[in-house]
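Example A, followed by Example B.
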Amino acid sequence: MFRSLRALSGVPRLRSLLSLSLLARIHMSALPVALSFLVADWTGSYASVGLLSGAMAVGQAVAGPVRGRIADRDSATSVLFKTGTGYAVGLVLLVVLAGLAPSGLWPVAVVVTFFTGLMLPPVSQLSRSIWPRLVGGEQRQALYTLDSTGYEVIATIGPLLATAVVTLSSGAVAVGVCAALAAGGAMVFGLALRSAGFERAEPPAAAVSSKPADRRSLLRDATFLRAVAVPFFLMAALFSVNLSLVAWGRTNDTPKTAGVLIALFSLGAAIGGLVVVSRGLKPHSGRTTSGLAAGLIVLALLLPPVSDHTPVWALVVVTLLTGSAVAASLGSSNSRIGELAPPERRAEAFGWLATATTSGAALVLPLTGWLLDLQGPAASLGAGAVAAVLSAGLAFSLPARAEESGAKESDAKSDGYGNTRADGDGTGDGRTGKGGADGDDDSASESTAEVK
């Protein structure tokens, strides 16, 4: 039952790198709660919380591929040091602005949060770009699921930490703690990458062309584009949960309960992910995301204005069960990105993943803030359920993995865009019709097949 975990535990340097990368990301789960309390107390409006959080997400989305390209071509450690410092400075500036400026000037903070988002340390994309250098074959998806599961464990601690700091002090102090965690974590992980010899990107394979055409955007490939769209809508669904529960907690004067529910959502994801990894399962992202959508619909029906008197135990049960689909969904979609990306462009590929996930957050946060002010948590969670349905539909539309369609990995070779072609047959990673290295959209005709 635990053979996958035992196999991964024996991979050199994996435990230290995975642990440090997770600790360096703890601020990401704590900041939404801390920022929500800081901005809501400053402005008295959830719409402003959504807009400021969305501006930060836009900044993260814009910078994701750029940071990835820099890390692919330069020093990953240097990128982490510089972005960690800039990100911490931006968060501290936001705290100062909220403490000194009148609430009517909150739109100025949109610029601050945008530039802060530009400086988010790319710990996630760098760590995910090196996992294929540590393991291969069947272990790869297990490692990506373990990465997502580990983050969900950290995400359980983050909201509780932020809520505890808010309760004992204020939202401003909680944001300051996030700034310190982000800067310190990025620097320590950067030093670990240097020590492990992963400071530089993996050199391109000899068979990969070095022509300028090979450096065209990865998004030119229709399969890669759809694969990136899966986590875009998935993250939009997930971000609707945090803000909705924070709003429910503030309305009912129970911020601690809201923090606990958010943590339980992550705990459910961690439990679900551990089950997947320990049993060696390979869940389909479309199915698990469909389960997430169903859970969000049920949760929406339990919150205002649909229901004003739902017992807390019912929210606990539904939140746990809904969260259990998260890690498997994220792990499958992340593994697919790593599979499609050329080895020498993985940091860039996961930069596009970062862009997709933060763009999903940027899409949903202003919308959920507006729906919270207009209707309440049920409406904002309903929007998240719609996003989850779209993510599931895209996952079902993708072609099968090479191993699922019967192609042997040893007989496959990269075309420069991360697609695989079986020797001599000219087809691209399970697609019918045209295949090849150009990545043109007209090569994307395929039969519907499972990808995860």
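Example B, a separate protein, is given below in the same form.
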Amino acid sequence: MAEREWAEKNYYADLGVSSSASAGDIKRAYRKLARDNHPDNHPGDKNAEDRFKRIAEAYDVVGDEKKRREYDEMKAMLASGGLRGFGGNAGSGFPGGFRQTQADFDVSDLFGGDGGFTSEGGLGDIFGGLFNRGHGPRHAAQPSRGADVETDITLDFREAAQGATIPVELKGPAPCTRCHGSGSRSGKTSRCDSCNGTGFTNENRGAFGFSAPCTDCGGNGQTISDPCADCSGTGTVNRTRSITVRVPAGVIDGQRVRLAGQGEAGPNGRPSGDLFVTVHVRGDKVFTRTGSTLEVEIPVSFAELALGDTITVPTLDEPVRVKVPAGTPDGRTLRVRGRGIPKRDGTKGDLMVTVKVTVPGDLGPAATSALRAYAQAEKESGFDPRADWAGSA
């Protein structure tokens, strides 16, 4: 989630907590809402699925100490009087009575977009400093962590239902093996004298005070006197690496799996970003699912339904024997408990078996004779399959 999208979100409201809630309160609220709105508990309910995704997104931000701090600072900045010039009000606080109408306003302007604010004194400096994302070569600060990475994988239906371990290859910044990510040949850095190790310098421009990344250390707060030759002092090199993604059992099509710290490496030993894997699920020739319920349609003969029988039904692991009572109508669904899709609590959903009569295309002489005798006996018994049919006279 890019920080510019946070402006339109109220993550605390999505979790039903106040902005002053403790980390423990936020975690408890998330767990309860995630459990109540999990797609397994609301099969086929698109609204519940959307709520679940919104709750997960909210917790991903305010459940993370660093992201929550950045989110709170950004929301406070938006709510401050210094931004009242947006929305068609007079641009008090902007030199020269600057005015921008609501129709002209785009939230991307606040983050150094193409809305007319540049890195030289525009609002991009404010938010660029806030999120360590300054614009322009003079103000380019090193990020506080590596970038998040997104990728996609495709699983077979049964892999998604039972869980799988999938290798994924990623190409991008990874820690330099020679300097172990420090950027220094000796592994030693020293505090930047220009910013006293803060990574930022302050300057005043008229009525405004700006915090900009230190130009001497690039916002790092540390200087390197002996940069590593392999990474040129950045601590990272581009290379291909293999990540093992463990997909939990029961994952649904389109669900994202987060691997903390498996994204791009941060510069000079900073933490890595996260890896987000979107899972796509192929259809299956035999099974379908609704939440944690596994569904299968089994072909049977008329005799098996009329006389009753025990049939073998496939499951995700070992086949199961299912008793079909005598007189079972075509299309009836039989339930087999505990043989469905695994749930998050370790239990399994149910297997729903629908029986469908298959009519033979070619009967031999003996079978034809026997069936004719049966048909005659059926008539003599008084059975009429259309006796209660709505279209009967």
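On Example B: The two ends are 65 Å apart (CA to CA).
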